[in-house]
Amino acid sequence: MPETKLEIRSKVDQFPLDDQQTSSLKMLLRVCRNTLDKVDEEMIERAFRLCCMSHQSDLRASGEPYYLHPLEVAVIMAEEFNIDDVSVAAALLHDTVEDTTVTLEEIRKLFGADVMHIIDGLTKISGVFENKNTRQAETFMKLLLSMAEDIRVVLIKFADRLHNMRTIGPLSRQRQLNKAMETIELYAPLAHRFGLFKIKNELEDLCFKVIDPNSYKFIVRKLREKREAREAFIDEFMNPIQSELQGQKFSFEIKGRPKHIYSIYKKMQSQQKPFEEIYDLFAIRIILEYPHTKEDCWRVYSVITDWYTPIPKRFRDFISVPKANGYQSLHTTVITKKGRKVEVQIRTRRMDYIAEQGVAAHWKYKEGEVNDGKNGSEQLDKMLHWVRDVLDAPRPEAATEFVKDFQLNLYQDEIYVFTPNGELKTLPNGASCIDFAFEIHSEIGERAIAAKVNGKMVPLRQKLKSGDQVEIITSGKVNLNPDWMEDVVTHKAKARIRQFIKQKERKVANQGREIWEKRATRGKVEISDQEITQIAKIFKFNDAQELFYEIGSGAFDVNQLYKRVKQFKSKGRLDQDETEQEKVSLTEKSEEMTRLARSAGEGKALLVEGELTDVKYSYANCCNPIPGDHVLGFLSRNGDVKIHRSNCKNAHHLIRTDNERIVEISWAKNIGTQFLGGIRVVGEDRVGLVNDLTEVLSKSLQTNMKSINVSSEDGMFEGLITAYVNDLSHLEKIIKRLERVEGIRNVSRYE
Ligand code: MN
Fold first, then answer.
1. Does residue 13 share a domain with residue 124?
2. Domain check: are 176 and 33 in the same one?
3. 101 within domain boundaries
């Protein structure tokens, strides 16, 4: 395919059409002119040419040229839905990206972003539709809503299926049955939910024809035989009522269409009755216009029953007692003088409107719990209303607005995303790839190292949006990072990360306990856990565990504990006063430190590295601070200062539990020494990658590496590098430079 927009365009425009194609194009343009408000004929023609060009070597199962299928789908779009020319163009191209060499990018260049998004949506939806797990109507509904960022995607999908069902003949019996079952189970109910009753009825009849051809043919023949008689009968039935109601100054509309074939069949089945008893049971609907009220419905009822004899047991008053879904109407079945039964439904325009919304109401009733709150359902009502509006009375502004309105903010609280094999996952709004990983399996979450969203590598913390297809790349080992807590919203992910942090704390606490036990053995003291807990409380820890954690993390000096235990053992009790004294002396010390700090630096903070000779300090292993990081010092009881990064979890713990021992710290300007910095590199594995990484560090950045650990799996590469760095800006420079290495997707600091 050529590169530029103009080149592609001229290649498509010059594609020669044969006579049949030329007349097809003329026919399509004529249909569009008749049904659409405004037609970009150049765009339709170009779409048609690309359709013919890309499918030129394809044939349908019938042996016909393939282009006839997209052509017919486009005609259905124009005739049945008549939304706009964009949807007609997209219908012409609906199979190109999936089945031919045409790319989305080419579609965008030729037809713009709208057509491209529709084709993209259709391509995404294709696998998902056939997924058996999505057969639950509710999931299915949500799926479509999330996929269809644009209603046109769904409508083209229906048109496509309708045409495939209309032309199902040449397929094998087995394939016909599969398609028909799928259509009747998935598409027809969905069409119903969207209020697309015409399409739904045709789809049902087409399926019925495949599934039970004999019954279908039987009903068709019977209907044909009875047709004239039926029409005459309806007229005859309605005439007296119509004039009586007009005489009484009712303003109303009468609807009396025969049922479609499949619904006659269903009635025959469910009522176990022969065709003759079913076929003439037409529901005639009398809709009273505003401002008629429910009392007027009763008046109409009495007019009808003056003429015809009602069957008492077939009377239903859904006005006084609406159906659970809010449906209101009077139903009565009457017998004519000649003994025929007719069902009559009487309702006001408002009730009819609610009845039309019954799909949504039904959905609300059954699945109301799922979306908790009315918002989604109200929006759904609105959507169904919109769909019907557009289909019944296509007005240009309405149609355009409709398309815009359907930008699927229907469920603002939830998003719907997909696994690589098209399985639907529902997540709360704001969920990230990490949430998604935990949603699939806690092990996937723990081992996640990177994610692909719609085929592109992204950081794990990236937020997802409806319609995203997400793949999680995992490592062989647990990679869970406590910092993820900031990037997750689901309960599942939060619980697991919290559990992980707890486990880690427990490990540190166990180390602390070992340190203490060694010290105790060396100092020959023995003490029970209960006594330790008491002493921990004196030091203002909640329990022994917390005390041991502080020792394990290096924040609390074990000798301090030892001293106190010795004292406790010799006196046989704990000396509260002495503890108080110690606290005072600690405060003094802290003040002294601050004084020292003031004299040492120009500012109020303690300056470290080189200029701070009077104070012993060291760097915490948990966060390995380097110059440039925001840091704080923690004054231990023997006067040392432990320096943590201020975003370190341990530092946060210290701030919470022992705020008064925190010392402000800042870095001196010129520091001669080097620090260890950790860098995590994730990318696609390839030959020579490690070499390239080390090259970049040593040659272009003159940085010495201490270690590099590499693991790779499934073509993904993860490297953990420790390097000697001068300060934060040096580390950041390394990260930036490594990001540019070919195949590298993510570079971050790690501790
Ligand atoms: Mn198709």
1. yes
2. yes
3. yes
Residue 171 falls within a domain, yes or no? yes
What angle is formed at CA 262 by the lines to CA 258 and CA 263, rounded to 5 degrees?
55
The count of structural domains within the chain is 6
pLDDT of residue 432: 95
Separation CA 327–CA 306 (nearest Å): 26
Q: How far apart are the C-alpha atoms of 214 and 677, rounded to whole Å?
A: 78
Q: What 3-state class would DSSP assign to 217?
A: helix
Q: Is residue 371 part of a domain?
A: no
Q: Which residue among 664, 698, 731 closes a domain?
A: 664
Asked whether 625 and 619 are in contact (CB, 8 A), the reply is yes
Q: Amino acid identity, residue 679?
A: I
Q: Is there a contact between 8 and 106 (Cβ–Cβ < 8 Å)?
A: yes
pLDDT > 50? residue 203: yes
Expressed in angstroms and rounded, the spacing between residue 569 Cα and the centre of ligand 1 is 86
CATH number of the structural domain spanning residue 256: 3.30.460.10
How far does the centroid of ligand 1 lie from the alpha carbon of residue 69, in Å? 7
What is the C-alpha separation between 315 and 303, in angstroms, rounded? 15
- Based on the fold, state whether residues 37 and 161 are members of the same structural domain: yes
Q: How far is the CA of 515 from the centre of ligand 1 (A)?
A: 71
Query: Does residue 151 sit in the same domain as residue 260?
Result: no
Same domain? 272 vs 125: no
* CB 463, CB 431: distance < 8 Å: yes
Domain extent, residue 461, equals: 412-484
Task: Say how far apart CA 457 and CA 10 lie, in whole Å.
Answer: 35
What would the DSSP string read from start to end of 122-157? HHHHHHHHT-GGGGSHHHHHHHHHHH-SSHHHHHHH
Residue 149 CA to ligand 1 center (angstroms) comes to: 20
- pTM score of the predicted model: 0.46
Let me know if residue 506 belongs to a domain. Answer: yes
CA of 589: how far to CAs of 554, 592, 627, 635, 639, in Å? 19, 5, 26, 9, 8
- N- to C-terminal Cα distance for the chain? 48
Ligand 1 mean position, distance from CA 465 (Å)? 27
- 373 or 209, which is more confident: 209
Q: Separation of 94 CA from ligand 1 center, angstroms?
A: 6
pLDDT tens, 18-30? 999 999 999 999 9
| Closest to 424 in 3D by CA, of 442, 439, 412 | 439
Q: What CA–CA distance (Å, rounded) separates 27 from 24?
A: 5
Q: Highest-confidence range of 365-374, 547-556, 647-656, by mean pLDDT?
A: 547-556
Residues 548, 608, single domain; the answer is no
Between the CA of 206 and the centroid of ligand 1 the distance, in Å, is 17
The answer on 263 and 243 residing in a single domain is yes
In the block, residue with structure tokens 């995607």: 153
Active site residues: 98-99
The answer on 478 and 346 residing in a single domain is no
Rounded to the nearest 10 degrees, what angle do helices 491-522 and 544-552 cross at? 80
Task: List 452's β-bridge partners, or say none.
Answer: 457, 471
Ligand 1 mean position to 30 CA, how many Å? 22
